[in-house]
């Protein structure tokens, strides 16, 4: 895939060229995959139980869909801010600067923890607004208790992500895997959100090479300069994730404008889509780590190879996912419900979900590359154009104006994700070219 053609004008694809890159990326990605797998399996199991509990009644599954969607929109914005720590720590790790890394971690613990409390307060305050989003009243009534349980988890989730993103920055993705698996094994209701951060903190204190990052930890060390650095990196990532998530959440809310059956079908299709997306997210996370380390070492040649290897991996995976979605579209929904109308709608949605798989993979890895080289300001306007100016309006146009129904809403994703993929690739090509030019200039100066 000729993403960075100006640097390699005559180079054809060779597996030997990328073999070590694939291995390096997968070594980082696979623990993240297992981490995501633990979380996704819990989500799938919950949806299977809720769907089977409802039988032919779509209300319980529709309630989970609606409550989860309202929670997710602010949840993902908060997580996006925490993700800003990874590329910052990754660059410092490659440069061997432990002091600055320690400052980022300690300030992150305080700042992200307080952010989780503030976000939970905002999420709790929006509960009365849930009755004004055009959803059936009985669905909202059933969704609110589920939503409240999710809201209480926010401070603990943010504490977990603080340590998780720091460890990813130093190239350690295995700990989050073991912590998540252990927390899921001990899962009772939502207790995992209390267990996971405690396990993560315990790991830090039990390992001397990580415990040193917490030496002298005190609220007195709170530094606005460090918080500003975290916000400078995290806010654009947060807004990009918020805008992308809003396309999915907005589509889910518009599904409720049809009926409960459509809401239930959307929840099934979204859950299966998340199962495929966990691999995409894992490759994207590994890409950020590899690219940030190469960026910190100013090794732009390795950076380019690592980035292109991630594109190869994600395209192979998403092609397989699309094939499974299409071939298994009439079977998978039957695991969740016995309602014939819900099964029929979900089957159609899975076909349209298959259409945007490749674009989704490309744009996610592209975001990972841009995070790694700390070129994050551009991703927010790209996301705004892609998801708010293209995705949601196109979905409404096809779904309601042109009468395509739920499938038309899903068709909007193909427009939004494809636009994001194209614009981000254009930005990456420019950024990599600039990094190469700067590297060549510095090399000339050193040799003169």
Number of helices: 16
Distance between the termini: 36 Å
Low-pLDDT regions? 5-10, 441-448
Structural class: mainly alpha
Give an account of the 3D structure.
This protein is an all-alpha fold. Helix 1 packs antiparallel against helix 2, helix 4 packs antiparallel against helix 6 and helix 14 runs parallel beside helix 16. The protein starts with 14 loop residues before the first helix and ends with a helix.
Outline the secondary-structure elements:
Blueprint: H1 15-54, H2 59-83, H3 85-95, H4 98-125, H5 137-151, H6 154-169, H7 174-185, H8 192-206, H9 208-211, H10 224-255, H11 260-297, H12 300-327, H13 340-355, H14 357-372, H15 379-401, H16 406-447
Helix pairs in contact: 1-2, 1-7, 1-11, 1-12, 2-4, 2-5, 2-6, 2-10, 2-11, 3-4, 3-6, 3-11, 4-6, 6-8, 7-8, 10-15, 10-16, 11-12, 11-13, 11-14, 12-13, 12-14, 13-16, 14-16, 15-16
In short:
The protein contains 16 helices and no strands. With 448 residues, it is mainly alpha-helical.
């Amino acid at each position: 895939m000729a993403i960075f053609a100006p640097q390699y004008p005559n180079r054809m694809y060779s597996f030997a060229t990328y073999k070590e890159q694939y291995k390096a990326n997968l070594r980082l990605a696979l623990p993240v995959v297992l981490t995501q797998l633990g979380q996704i399996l819990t989500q799938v199991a919950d949806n299977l139980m809720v769907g089977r509990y409802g039988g032919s009644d779509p209300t319980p599954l529709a309630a989970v869909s609606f409550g989860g969607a309202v929670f997710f929109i602010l949840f993902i914005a908060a997580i996006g801010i925490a993700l800003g720590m990874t590329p910052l720590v990754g660059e410092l790790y490659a440069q061997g600067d432990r002091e600055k890394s320690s400052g980022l971690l300690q300030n992150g613990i305080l700042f992200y923890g307080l952010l989780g409390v503030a976000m939970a307060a905002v999420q709790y305050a929006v509960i009365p607004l849930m009755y004004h989003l055009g959803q059936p009243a009985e669905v909202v009534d059933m969704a609110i208790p589920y939503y409240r349980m999710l809201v209480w988890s926010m401070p603990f989730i943010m504490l977990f992500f603080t340590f998780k993103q720091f460890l990813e920055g130093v190239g350690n993705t295995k700990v989050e895997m073991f912590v998540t698996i252990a927390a899921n094994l001990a899962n009772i209701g939502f207790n995992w959100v209390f267990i996971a951060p405690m396990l993560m903190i315990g790991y830090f204190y039990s390992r001397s090479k990580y415990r040193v990052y917490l030496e002298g930890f005190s609220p007195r060390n709170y530094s606005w300069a460090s918080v500003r650095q975290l916000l400078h990196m995290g806010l654009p990532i947060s807004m990009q994730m918020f805008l992308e998530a809003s396309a999915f959440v907005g589509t889910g809310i518009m599904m409720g404008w049809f009926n409960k059956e459509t809401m239930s079908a959307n929840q099934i299709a979204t859950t299966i889509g998340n199962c495929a997306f966990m691999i995409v997210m894992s490759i994207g996370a590994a890409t950020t780590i590899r690219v940030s380390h190469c960026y910190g070492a100013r090794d732009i040649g390795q950076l380019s190879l690592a980035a292109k290897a991630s594109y190869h991996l994600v395209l192979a995976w998403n092609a397989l996912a699309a094939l499974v979605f299409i071939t298994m579209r009439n079977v998978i929904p039957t695991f969740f419900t016995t309602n014939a109308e819900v099964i029929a709608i979900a089957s159609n949605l899975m076909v349209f979900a298959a259409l945007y798989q490749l674009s989704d993979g490309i744009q996610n890895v592209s975001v990972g590359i841009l995070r790694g080289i700390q070129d994050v300001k551009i991703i927010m306007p790209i996301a705004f154009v892609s998801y708010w100016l293209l995705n949601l309006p196109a979905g409404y146009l096809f779904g309601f104006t042109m009468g395509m129904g739920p499938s038309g809403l899903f068709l909007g994703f193909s427009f939004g994700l494809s636009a994001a993929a194209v614009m981000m690739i254009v930005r990456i090509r420019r950024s990599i070219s600039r990094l190469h030019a700067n590297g060549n200039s510095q090399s000339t100066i050193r040799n003169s």
